[in-house]
Amino acid sequence: MANVLINAPKTARKGETIEVKALILHPMETGFRPGTNGTMIPRNIIQDFIATWNGIEIFRMRMSPAIAANPYVSFFTVASESGTIRFRWSGDNDFSAEGSVTVAVT
Amino acid sequence: MSSLPTRRHFLVAAATVTVIPFAPALATPESLAAAIKEVVGEVEVRSGRVKLDIPPLIENGNAVPLTVSVESPMTDADHVKAIHVFNEKNPQPHVFNAWLGPRNGRAVVGTRIKLADTQKVVAIAETSTGQFWSASADVIVTIAACVEDVK
Question: Superkingdom of this entry's organism (chain B) (predicted)?
Fold first, then answer.
């Protein structure tokens, strides 16, 4: 299970724009680096990051090897109704991880 | 005697060099231009509205903080649809593509990237009205990413 760190306000006023930050532990191996034996280390990156609010997609990102190891993403979203923001990362070698955070909207 | 033509020749040469205008759009390498064209097609990319926050001098290219913010009302009718970031000298020109919508409230995306060399980073925002806005930043990198041996 991948290690995921998510930061979002626990409560928000309705209509407020909140910042959401998500970080996942992942090597993001570029595939352009030679290893100790001289051969290239195969690419192993996260390619897609998708965030949904109560099932509705609010943010999506396509990553390239140029994203630093342990990808960190921050974005904003409008707090529309109380619910769960779910994050999904997927990538090379069938990598897949999920994380979620609940926000109470008043 | 021969010093006069030489000097004149030099002055003419110097004048010729200085009249070449500075054209940033043409200075980008082919792969960067090709990657941008893949996203924008034939539409004109205007500079402005986009703010690219990245440190101008970086010690370690392995994790460079980068924030792209776009001026936009983020309404249903007029919002930023996507933000694309490209680089000039990494092995691949792509950095990331992010898709947004009116539900984002603010068109701001932050992340950390790798930079293999001192180079230019370009951010392009695509609006729902079909316009493309861009900003670029030059970054000096002292220790590049991707060059160190593993463990």
Answer: Bacteria
Phi, psi of A73 (to 5 degrees): -135, 135
| pLDDT for res B8 | 65
Predicted complex: ipTM over 0.85? yes
Q: How far is B146 from chain A (nearest CA, A)?
A: 6
User: Can you list the domains of chain A with their CATH numbers?
Assistant: 4-31+44-105 (2.60.40.10)
Residue B65's φ and ψ, nearest 5 degrees, are -70, 140
pLDDT at A76 over 80: yes
Given an 8 Å threshold on Cβ–Cβ distance, is A78 in contact with B103?
yes
Chain B residues with at least one Cβ partner in A under 8 Å: 62-64, 67, 87, 90-92, 94-101, 103-115, 145-151
Listed by start position, the domains of chain B span 3-143
Beta carbons of B113 and A78 less than 8 Å apart: no
Bridge partner list, B64: B113
Question: Per residue in B70-106, pLDDT tens?
Answer: 999 999 989 999 999 999 888 889 999 999 999 999 9
What superfamily would CATH give domain B3-143? SoxY domain (2.60.40.2470)
Q: What distance in Å separates residue B68's CA from the closest CA in chain A?
A: 10
CA angle A32, A59, B73 (to 5 degrees): 120
- The residue in chain A having the minimum alpha-carbon distance to the alpha carbon of residue B75 is A78
DSSP A40: B
